[in-house]
Amino acid sequence: MSARDEILARVRGATADIVTTPADRGPVAVVEETSPGESETLELFAENVADYRAQVVRVGPSGVAAAVAGALSEHGCRTVVVPSGLDPSWRAAAEGVARVLSDDEATTHLARDDVDAVVTASAVGVATTGTIVLDHGADQGRRELTLVPDTHVCVIRADQVVHDVPESVARLRPGPDGARPLTWISGPSATSDIELERVEGVHGPRTLVVVLVEGADA
Fold first, then answer.
1. What are phi and psi of 41, to 5 degrees?
2. What DSSP assignment string belongs to 10-46?
3. Which of 115, 141, 159, 161 has a beta carbon 3.0–4.6 Å from 145's, enabling a disulfide?
4. Model pTM?
5. Distance (Å, whole) CA 140 – CA 136
């Protein structure tokens, strides 16, 4: 007899005289969950993103370029890297306040280390966790571009914000062929040292500015 069989035999012997019967608890109540409305989801998202010490800027579609330029100027960013598929108006806004590099110009460690900020779009936002997910499409660029610069200005549309993680996973991976590398961002990069002192900017950007685009311009 193997050790496994011996252990299982002892367990069976020790529990042989135990008889359990299901308790009659009556009918089970079924509680139907209803997802909150769009406005409640956006409020929750903005609240949780801010709770992570990120800056949230809420604008209409025509205000995105100004918000991008304002964030870069406010945080003293002199050099910015942008992915190749970034909205041209956002790039133009960045060029008005800083020297802009395309992602194919920041290909070495030294080049990326000299960059103050990165501007990207995003794939999905999760309201319950205050998380932004990048799937690194053309308007988000390579993963390393969002990890090295000290400031990340990230634009997300209201229709990209979902209530919870299951909804976000369903949207990010709609089928077996839809899998892509993902980066999940919950606030600026932060950790604690051995004395529990919070240190920011260790594993990614020290500053995260989230531009939340709501509604439609008249």
1. -65, -45
2. HHHHHHTT---------SPPP----PPPHHHHHHHHH
3. 141
4. 0.76
5. 5
